[in-house]
């Protein structure tokens, strides 16, 4: 229940942020309004001694989040996808947030598997290892299927994790509501929307059937991609709390020395990983949104293997075309066209001046193109771009933020393999191919055919639909029914409670 009982949890959170030195850094990164900063410090500083100490070797914010436990770790990872909220610098720090936690006992995992799949583990697997990885939500075991002898990865949710997450989600929602109430200026950060986004992401990860479905969909989309593999889920050995997938054998992409020693072409790998990501995003509209080194391996034959499909991005076809045009405009340095695309898509309010917007975009792009290949940075471009779009009243679009953030992550992966990679030149052929196939005459004919098919499907119903629409327009509007006295009484009580809470909170000032 999202009530005042959550205040204790928030006090413990504030105390931990104060004790680790993260409070000031986090508030500055989010450019929090002065009133909100005051309330945060009041709730944290007097209780500093109650906060968790954390690992002094970590940066302040990641130190605090790691000390607070699994829900906060996952929240930090999701916030790393929202540089529009926490700022590019803090988003980059949160991106490398580690969630390596102590594993829970293997016997507990086996009991959970047996309960979920309704068969003893020994009947399902001829071999079952100790945990090979343990994260905030689940841990992974290596096993061998008893029926086929194939090596697989078995992912098992932490016991009680859903209940624990729901408690913390309750506190997060309460905190977001308090922030919006105490500081109207903070509403531009849309705290409640951020928490809703986090809740949707986490609850999806807590049902491993959905992750298995994401892996299956991603594998189907990318089946024709050369030198790219997605482990397939084993549906008969998967459920809500257990997911079994093909074992991915390879060298972690973060181990550059091992990749070099194995004779892999690092330049080719760097170009392939960026081009694959862009192909998935533009061609399919469905992409791996957590594509860092820890979720990528390189097979012996040079194939890139992706795994861990808890966070996936999805964008519709129209948005993909808009994004491709924006990318292509920057690549060609046609800032007027980039500005026009923003206005045509409705991303920038129509009352703003397109020429001024194009000029501001030129100020974003030209410094980037004035650098050599080793200095060109998507992260820096996005930092400037956020400043410009905020100044011109562009509303935040979560799907584009996730796409852009993932591009920053993939750029980092590619640069770790080849620091001299020019990401614009590498991206150009993928974007040009997409535009040629989706924005030319051929694409227009394809769109017209689709429209005709849809109209043909509804053709027999069009006369009745039109008649019903016209008749509803002519009907007199009906007044809403009056509220019952009981409903009115409840509203009065609720309003009184809100006023009382507001008065108590107001005393803090």
UniProtKB/TrEMBL annotation:
> Cross-referenced InterPro entries, in alphabetical order?
ABC1_dom (IPR004147), Kinase-like_dom_sf (IPR011009), UbiB (IPR010232), UbiB_bact (IPR045308), UbiB_kinase (IPR050154)
Q: Which UniProt keywords apply?
A: ATP-binding, Cell inner membrane, Cell membrane, Kinase, Membrane, Nucleotide-binding, Transferase, Transmembrane, Transmembrane helix, Ubiquinone biosynthesis
Molecular-function GO terms, alphabetical: ATP binding; kinase activity
One GO BP annotation of this record: ubiquinone biosynthetic process
In terms of domain of life, where is this protein from?
Bacteria
Protein's pathway: Cofactor biosynthesis; ubiquinone biosynthesis [regulation]
Domain called ABC1 atypical kinase-like: residue spans: 97-342
The keyword Transmembrane helix is assigned to this record: yes
Has keyword Transmembrane? yes
Entry similarity comment: Belongs to the protein kinase superfamily. ADCK protein kinase family.
Q: This chain belongs to which protein, by name?
A: 2-polyprenylphenol 6-hydroxylase
């Amino acid at each position: 229940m999202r009530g005042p009982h959550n205040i204790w949890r928030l006090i413990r959170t504030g105390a931990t942020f104060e004790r680790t030195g993260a409070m000031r850094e986090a508030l500055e990164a989010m450019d929090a309004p002065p009133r909100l900063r005051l309330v945060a410090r009041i709730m944290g500083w007097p209780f500093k001694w109650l906060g968790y100490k954390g690992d002094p070797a970590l940066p302040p914010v990641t130190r605090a989040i790691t000390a607070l436990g699994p829900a906060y770790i996952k929240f930090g990872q999701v916030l790393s996808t929202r540089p529009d909220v926490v700022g590019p610098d803090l988003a980059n720090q949160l991106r490398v947030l580690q969630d390596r936690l102590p594993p829970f006992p293997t016997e507990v995992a086996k009991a959970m598997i047996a309960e979920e799949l309704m068969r003893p583990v020994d009947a399902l697997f001829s071999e079952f290892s100790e945990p090979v990885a343990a994260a905030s939500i689940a841990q992974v075991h290596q096993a061998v299927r008893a029926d086929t002898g194939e090596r697989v990865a078995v992912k098992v949710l932490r016991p009680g994790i859903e209940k624990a997450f729901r408690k913390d989600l309750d506190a997060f929602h309460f905190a977001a509501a308090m922030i919006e109430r105490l500081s109207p200026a903070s509403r531009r950060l849309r705290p409640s929307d951020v928490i809703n986004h986090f809740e949707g992401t986490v609850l999806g990860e807590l049902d491993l059937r959905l992750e298995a479905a994401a892996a299956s969909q991603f594998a189907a989309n990318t089946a024709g991609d050369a030198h790219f593999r997605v482990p397939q889920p084993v549906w008969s050995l998967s459920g809500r709390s257990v997911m079994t997938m093909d074992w991915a054998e390879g060298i972690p992409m973060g181990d550059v020395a091992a990749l070099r020693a194995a004779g892999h072409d690092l330049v080719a790998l760097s170009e392939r990983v960026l081009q694959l990501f862009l192909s998935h995003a533009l061609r399919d509209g469905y992409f791996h949104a957590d594509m860092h080194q820890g979720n990528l391996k390189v097979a012996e034959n040079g194939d890139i293997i992706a795994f861990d499909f808890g966070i996936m991005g999805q964008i519709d076809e129209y948005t993909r075309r808009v994004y491709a045009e924006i990318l292509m405009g920057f690549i060609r340095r046609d800032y007027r066209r980039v500005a026009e695309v923003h206005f045509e898509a409705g991303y920038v309010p129509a009352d703003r001046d397109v020429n001024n917007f194009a000029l501001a975009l030129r100020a974003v792009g030209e410094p980037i193109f004035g650098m050599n290949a080793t200095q060109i940075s998507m992260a820096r471009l996005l930092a400037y771009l956020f400043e410009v779009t905020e100044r011109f009243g562009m509303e935040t679009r979560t799907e584009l933020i996730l796409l852009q953030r993932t591009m920053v992550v993939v750029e980092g992966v590619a640069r770790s393999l080849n620091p001299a990679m020019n990401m614009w030149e590498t991206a150009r052929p993928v974007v040009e191919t997409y535009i040629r196939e989706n924005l030319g005459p051929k694409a227009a004919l394809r769109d017209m055919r689709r429209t005709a098919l849809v109209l043909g499907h509804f053709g027999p119903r069009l006369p009745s639909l039109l008649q019903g629409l016209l008749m509803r327009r002519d009907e007199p509007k009906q007044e809403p029914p009056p509220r019952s006295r009981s409903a009115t009484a409840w509203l009065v009580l609720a309003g009184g409670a809100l006023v009382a809470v507001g008065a108590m909170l107001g005393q803090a000032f």
